[in-house]
Design brief:
905 residues, mainly alpha, 5-stranded parallel sheet, two-stranded antiparallel sheet, 7 strands, 65% helix
Length: 905
């Protein structure tokens, strides 16, 4: 029956315990593997009610059977715990479909899964899995599966207890033919009548009768329901074993799965693997869970008998063995099992200790969701009183950009620390410093630097007394502040000092941030060799330790993308920035987000894709609003003004964005005092926005343009402050802006002399975009300077490469102008909330239909069936759709389409 129905989507084997469900599934899987199908076996337990863990276990099992499955799916589970299945399941279905191999997945003990979210994942896989994916599921019931719909579509085959029962002939084959028992026809008929073909009972009978001379007498005494039969027979089986084997069985019955090391720890038998193999050879209901014989489990029914016998013969021993199992699991890297056994022993404190012991390892390895799932197992009142655990929880939420939950956990840790009796004086000292670092990190993600100065005395002065992670992250936060105080050389020095602490951490995050911040400081100084070195190191570290598409690697990609953009390598930059953009509000600190949204919007505008550039800036605004990031919001507005693609709300004169500006008119006072911390950068962004807006209005012939002299004065002030407070890179951009303002005001000679140092710097460093992004007046100066250099020799101190550099700039601008002229229409996008869905230019009607089905999480095969297309045709349309929307996967496609109002939000 099973062989003839291999193409059914689901084979459900359901029956009470002891009917051979798992045995049948295993035998069937062997048959299918012999037919060259890929077979995947996943033994479920109650932890699989956590949907992220279930998907993680499933992906690991599939990857073991079919290496090469996209590792990005696994990373996504940790980084997006709230909705990962919405992207992982369709991606998994497509990966299986595109692989072209038939895969059969067995889910053993499905009845242990009761969580609706996990059940929904399996339901989705069953209904949308395509022709290459099918399931065998064993369960004690029929719940949690879409059986009605599968039955209607003839995609279901069921094997129940009636089909699994042995008939009289099968009972005879099993007892006499296989087990060689000397039984007559009357004995066989009596046994079949009494056991009703229950396989577990028949197996127990075979064990009991092996050395029993009075078989007929034993059989006559069997009566009653299955449970009583089973208990009686189990007693007879156990009583025939030698004491060593019996004790081994009893002591190892506590965990749900066994390996040699755990068996030895529980039983005290040194040769645990040999004993497991001996018991398996004796057919004592021990089943292997993997091909290499590492993990085993007892049959559930037999396991229950052993546990009851253990309680009877050794009262109170179960609790002790649970504690042994908890400690073994903890020491060997299985924290979830360890917590379960500690709780089973009633030792909640040990469960807390186990989670605490593993917590920061999980944080450093970017497994924040796993940590939070472990914490959820512990009673809330016990977890709440543990300062170390609450601090780790605060870290997990911080790195997931969940600042509210992070702050609550941190506040709780600080409040319970005085009463936490598990802490030593050193623990209290270290946790106090760590709490300050967590708070500083929360502030840094919020673009604040409130507590950073305290780190010098409380953290760095005593660094050797602290865990490397604490010092590593503290150094990054301190570096962040130094960068935004304009102390770039001190920032680089801080990172040189911190390098050894970065190297002592086990995960990539702090090291990636360290390299990125070093690169930012070097960028401010225009030390591009060092910038390249640090950004490259950050990308490589993130990819090596966490994966090509990991959070850490994408953050580093944002910084490298900006450098590539300014060098004119738009294709490489665009690819990296698109990957970082997928992180959304989890895209790191503001500097990373600025690189992502502002730079990517410029690239889209250069491609002639004004609507897409606008949407990227809208997305940046949404992130800024949701996280309260004023600096990001200001940069988005500056980009709108500079690209001429959005409204400009200007509420001050060009030179009044900085406090006291109105009173400062003389050149001697043009700089003024530095504003504190990030306020200086924000003020300069505001002033640059006002100046760009005024220049745009003047260039467009506004009826009431601001005075040109005011614009030049404001630009002079911006240059003075940038040079004094924000370093060479800011000075370079401000100089370019002043030159454009002077050119627009009709002062060509001073404009050329102002721009000349910027041109020399950009030529020497190979930076093309700062000048090209300077605006029409700046580009007019470039053309005029190039023409003059062709007529006259370069100045004595001028670079001989400058004329060639200017020619490159002119050629690149001509290419960009061609792209813009041939690009998409810049018609305004309907405002959010209008409920209007308008076809985007460049999207066909078919692409629109496919887009709506992608939003509904349809797999490629489902789309093909619904639209009556071939699956390869769907893939072609999806590729076209991704190209049109500038994305690389389904999740980004839906997000981008909603931002463009192609789909309702």
């Amino acid at each position: 029956m099973l062989h003839s129905d291999r193409k059914r989507r689901l084979a459900l084997i359901h029956a009470p315990a002891g009917f051979g469900k798992s045995t049948l599934a295993a035998q069937w899987m062997e048959f299918l593997a012999a037919q060259d199908l890929v077979t995947v076996w996943l033994s479920l337990d109650r932890d699989d009610n956590n949907t992220i863990w279930f998907l993680s276990h499933l992906l690991q099992a599939i990857r073991k059977a079919r290496p090469g499955l996209d590792e990005e799916l696994q990373q996504l589970l940790e980084e997006r715990p709230d909705d990962a299945e919405h992207y992982v399941v369709p991606a998994l279905i497509n990966a299986i479909d595109e692989g072209g191999q038939d895969i059969v997945i067995t889910l053993d003990d499905w009845h242990l899964v009761t969580e609706p979210r996990t059940r929904a994942v399996v339901e989705r896989l069953l209904e949308a899995g395509g022709s290459h994916l099918s399931f065998i599921i064993t369960s004690r019931n029929r719940s949690g599966l879409p059986l009605g719909r599968l039955m209607v579509r003839d995609q279901l085959i069921e094997v129940d207890a009636v089909a699994l029962r042995f008939d009289e002939n099968e009972s005879q084959d099993f007892l006499v033919g296989i087990n060689r028992l000397d039984l007559d026809a009357g004995d066989l008929a009596s046994l079949h009548r009494t056991t009703e073909g229950w396989i577990a009972a028949l197996q127990l009978v075979s064990l009991s009768l092996r050395d029993h001379r009075g078989a007929s007498d034993l059989i006559e005494r069997l009566s009653g329901r299955h449970a009583s039969i089973g208990e009686y027979l189990a007693e007879n089986v156990l009583d025939t074993l030698d004491p060593e084997t019996l004790d081994f069985l009893l002591m190892t019955s506590v965990p749900e799965r066994l390996c040699a090391g755990l068996a030895s720890a529980l039983s005290g038998v040194e040769l645990g693997q040999a004993m497991l193999e001996k018991i398996q050879a004796q057919d004592l209901f021990l089943q292997p869970l993997d091909d290499d014989g590492t993990w085993y489990r007892y049959h559930h029914l037999f396991e229950d008998y052993l546990r009851r016998r253990l309680e009877r013969d050794y009262p109170g021993r179960t609790g002790e063995l649970n504690l042994v199992a908890a400690r073994w699991y903890s020491e060997n890297g299985f924290p979830s099992d360890a917590v379960d056994h500690a709780l089973a022993a009633g030792d909640v404190e040990l469960a807390v200790e186990i989670v605490e012991l593993r917590a920061m390892w999980l944080v450093e390895h970017s497994s924040m969701s796993t940590l939070l799932a472990l914490v959820s197992k512990i009673p809330a009142d016990h977890a709440a009183g543990q300062a170390r655990l609450q601090t780790a929880i605060a870290w997990a939420h911080t790195l997931l950009n969940q600042s509210g939950a992070a702050q609550r956990a941190l506040n709780l840790a600080e409040s319970v620390m005085p009463a936490d009796a598990t802490l030593t004086e050193h623990d209290r000292f270290e946790l106090g410093v760590e709490g300050l670092v967590v708070q500083s990190c929360i502030d840094m993600y919020g673009d604040r630097v409130n507590h950073v100065d305290e780190l010098d005395g409380k953290c760095f002065a005593q660094a050797n007394l602290l865990r490397p992670w604490i010092v590593s992250v503290a150094a990054n936060v301190s570096t962040f502040k130094k960068i935004h105080d304009g102390d770039y050389r001190l920032a680089l020095e801080q990172q040189r000092w911190a390098a050894k602490f970065h190297g002592l951490t086990s995960g990539p995050f702090s090291g990636v941030y360290g390299h990125c911040f070093s690169g930012l400081a070097a960028y401010a100084l225009l030390d591009l060799d060092r910038v390249d070195q640090h950004f490259t190191a950050a990308v490589e570290l993130g990819r090596r330790k966490a994966g090509r598409y990991s959070h850490a690697a994408r953050l580093a990609g944002a910084m490298m993308g900006q450098l590539l953009y300014e060098r004119g390598e738009l294709d490489k930059a665009e690819k990296l920035l698109e990957e970082t953009r997928e992180l959304g509000s989890e895209g790191g600190v503001v500097d990373f987000m600025v690189s992502t949204y502002a730079t990517l919007a410029r690239i889209k505008a250069l491609r002639g894709d004004t609507p897409r550039a606008r949407e990227i800036l809208d997305e940046g605004d949404l992130v800024a609003d949701s996280l309260g990031l004023d600096r990001l919001r200001l940069v988005m507005n500056l980009e709108r003004v500079q690209l001429g693609i959005g409204p400009r709300a200007i509420d001050a004169e060009p030179d009044r964005a900085l406090p006291g500006a109105a009173a400062v008119r003389e050149p001697a006072d043009i700089t003024g005092p530095r504003l504190e911390g990030l306020a200086e950068a924000k003020a300069q962004i505001q002033l640059a926005t006002q100046l760009r807006s005024a220049m745009a209005d003047a260039g467009h012939g506004s009826q009431e343009p601001p005075g040109k002299s005011d614009t030049v004065t404001g630009a002079r002030r911006l240059l003075a402050r940038a040079a004094a407070y924000l370093g060479p890179r800011a000075e370079l951009n401000a100089r370019i802006l002043l030159a454009a303002a002077l050119e627009q005001a009709g002062n060509r000679k001073e404009a050329e002399s102002t721009l000349w140092p910027a041109l020399e710097t950009c030529s020497r460093l190979g930076l093309v975009r700062p000048v090209l992004d300077g605006g029409p007046s700046c580009l007019e100066l470039v053309r005029a300077t190039s023409a003059r250099l062709r007529r006259e020799p370069a100045p004595e101190l001028g670079s001989p490469e400058l004329p060639r550099f200017l020619s490159i700039l002119i050629r690149l601008e001509a290419q960009a102008r061609t792209n813009r002229d041939a690009g998409w229409s810049a018609e305004p996008v309907p405002p959010p909330g209008t409920g209007t869905t308008v076809p985007e230019p460049g999207l066909s009607q078919r692409e629109q239909m496919i887009l709506r089905l992608v939003e509904k999480e349809r797999s490629n095969r489902e789309i093909a069936q619904e639209l009556h297309l071939g699956i390869n045709t769907v893939k072609w349309y999806l590729k076209s759709l991704f190209n049109a929307l500038g994305v690389s996967d389904r999740r980004a496609c839906v997000t981008e389409a909603r931002r463009r109002h192609l789909l309702p939000k």
